Amino acid sequence: MPSARFYRRAYNIVxxxxxxxxxxxxxxxxxxxxxxxxxxxxxxxxxxxxxxAGSLWQINLRAFxxxxxxxxxxxxxxxxxxxxxxxHPLYLGIILSAVGLCIWSFSSLTTGIFIITFxxxxxxxxxxxxxxxxxxxxxxxxxxxxxxxxxxxxx
Length: 155
Known about the structure:
67% of the residues lie in helices and 0% in strands. The chain has helices at 4-27, 38-58, 61-65, 89-104, 108-136, 138-146. 19% of the residues are buried.
């Protein structure tokens, strides 16, 4: 049976391929489409990157990527900092950046990218939370009751 490290590596490879595909597709948009609202779009993207960087700063990045010998889920549950705002601040940052891309360059392509990314994240949250409940038990269930999954006071 494949290890958790294998799944983590496979997940990251698929995510990177998807990211490069999104960036390539965005580069194929006509230049005239990029003036939709670059300031507001850039602001959302910047806030999204702050959430991404802040959440990655708090975790064991080597275990997260799948190159460390230790399993990321076996570590202590992080409930403060960015993880005190949302249970999945990394996903929140990705969603904010995708919204920023849509605002910056509103088109059927960017809307499609946002929808696919959002659905991918919702599925990822469900799978990840099942693993975290197994790894952390009652502590994670209590964390779920106290902290919103993505967007405080909404979801």
